[in-house]
Amino acid sequence: MADLALRRTAATDRTAVLRWLQDYGVYAGVAALLLFNAAFTDHFLSAENFRTQAVQVAPVLIVALGMALAIGTEGIDLSVGSVMALSTSLVSLYLGYGPWLALLVVIVGGAVVGLAGGSLIAFIGVQPIVATLALMVGVRGLALVFLPQLKDVNEPSMASLGSGDLLGIPYLALIAVALAAVVAFAVRRTTFGRRLLAIGDSRPAAQLAGLPVRRVLIIVYVCSGVLAAIAGFLATARLSASDPTSLGNLMELSAITAVVVGGTPLTGGRIRIGGTVAGAVLIQLLTATLIKHDLPPSWTQMAQAAVIVLAVYAARERGKR
């Protein structure tokens, strides 16, 4: 009896630790990296460094918001990096007609890719990972057809968007935060958000309840495509160049990491936008820490992979209990 009680207590403690890691581990990770860099990284606490980190994390966060919606339905969107590449190609083609028209074309392009992926998933029944993997390859190829090589973007309003700020806060960071607020509101306060979570929790039950499952899935992937397209537009403005060969490479990995580490389970039915924001910041700080301490970029990819495995393990073990 005593051994049984001891085992139950140990199991309860382990569950509590896993619950804490899933709910608050990302915030603890951000705090730990901030403290480490404040102590051991030169000039980390400077205003210019914080500005740099905010500008660099903005596209990752915007893409992660769309990824969170897809994962919330128990799906995934691997095409986001290629959509960014398509966006930068479209910018170079249409910027001569004005930045607003270029932005409109970019958004339409992202929506079309999302519509294609959502239709494959909702109407044909293709698994999300297969449908979006096909789009990842095809859309990257299309981007290279439109623009085979790097091209400079010399447009004053784009330069202002990429490097400007309001009260010391970069425009890119402000846009990312505004989009995060919009997505959080949609998930928590709208009928669409409730339906999305219900589909992720149990798609057969949602269908039996009469929910418009196909329509919601298509909207989710269109939103993911549009957000990735906006991220590509902003990244182009920051870099002052269109480079479909490299822009968006491995962005899907960073976005998935941000979402999963932020507490959104891959099994769907739950979305944590606040955790996703913290997850994106964690990935950016991790990357910056390794770079500033002269470690090769490959270490960043391995660190992200390790973080994903730990986050999924914590969620899986917690789900067993």
Write up what this structure looks like.
The structure is a single chain. The protein has 321 residues and is mostly helical. The chain is 78% helix and 2% strand. Strand 2 and strand 3 form a beta hairpin. The longest helix is centred in the first third of the chain and has 39 residues, at 2-40.
Please tag this protein with its features.
321 residues, mainly alpha, two-stranded antiparallel ribbon, two-stranded antiparallel sheet, 13 helices, 4 strands, 78% helix, globular
Give the terminus-to-terminus CA distance: 21 Å
List SSEs in N-to-C order.
Answer: HHHHHEHEEHHHHEHHH
Number of helices: 13
Percent helix, as a range, is over 70%
Average pLDDT taken over every residue: 87
Question: Globular, elongated, flat, extended or rod-shaped: what is the shape?
Answer: globular
Q: What order do the strands of the largest sheet run in, or round the barrel if closed? A: 1-4
Number of DSSP strand runs: 4
Profile the largest sheet: 2 strands, antiparallel
Derived from helix and strand composition plus strand pairing, the structural class reads mainly alpha
Rg is 20 Å
Low-confidence stretches: none
Strand content: under 5%
